[in-house]
């Protein structure tokens, strides 16, 4: 199952609703440039509340300071740069499933 959000607030609301309903969220893929807050801050908030969720940043605009921050504070699993392809993202998520089992 996939869920999409256009803002960080909407994403946080969806995550909370799914978790409350007992849905296990495996991974979150976030851009760095999202409405509301930057992707690094968003992933840190998610990690602080739900540390079991794998975090992936997919962007072409984040600076190295932001990437290092999210690696340290949100246990960033992977940082993918744009342009990216579908198979690269799928492979990253599949590898995360193997690594966490």
Fraction of helical residues: 40-55%
- The level-1 CATH class: Alpha Beta
Which regions have little confidence, pLDDT < 50, spanning 5+ residues? Answer: none
Termini, distance in Å?
20 Å
Mean pLDDT, all residues = 91
Count of DSSP H/I helices:
4
Rg from alpha-carbon coordinates: 13 Å
* Range of strand content: 5-15%
Oligomer: single chain
Give the biggest beta sheet: 3 strands, parallel
The strand line-up of the biggest sheet is 1-2-3
Instruction: Report the CATH architecture.
Output: 3-Layer(aba) Sandwich
Shape type? globular
**What is the β-strand count?**
3
Structural class: alpha/beta
Order of helices and strands: HEHEHEH
The H-level CATH homologous superfamily, spelled out, is Response regulator
Q: How many domains would you count in the coordinates?
A: 1
Q: Any idea of the CATH topology? A: Rossmann fold
Question: Could you outline the blueprint of secondary structure elements for this entry?
Answer:
Blueprint: H1 8-20, E1 27-30, H2 39-49, E2 54-59, H3 64-74, E3 78-81, H4 86-100
Parallel strand pairs: 1-2, 2-3
Helix pairs in contact: 2-3
Q: What does this molecule look like?
A:
- By secondary structure, the chain is an alpha/beta fold.
- It has one domain (8-100): Rossmann fold, CATH 3.40.50.2300.
- 50% of the residues lie in helices and 14% in strands.
- It contains 4 helices and 3 strands.
- The chain has helices at residues 8-20, 39-49, 64-74, 86-100, and strands at residues 27-30, 54-59, 78-81.
- Helix 3 (64-74) links the parallel strand 2 (54-59) and strand 3.
- The two termini are 20 Å apart.
């Amino acid at each position: 199952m996939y869920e999409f959000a256009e803002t960080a607030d909407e994403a946080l609301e969806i995550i909370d609703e799914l978790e409350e309903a007992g849905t296990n969220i495996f991974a979150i893929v976030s851009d760095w440039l999202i409405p509301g807050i930057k992707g690094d801050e968003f992933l840190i908030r998610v990690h602080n509340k739900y540390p079991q969720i794998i975090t992936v940043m997919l962007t072409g605009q984040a600076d190295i300071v932001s990437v290092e921050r999210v690696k340290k504070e949100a246990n960033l699993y992977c940082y993918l740069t744009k342009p990216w392809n579908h198979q690269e993202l799928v492979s990253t998520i599949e590898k995360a499933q193997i690594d966490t089992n």
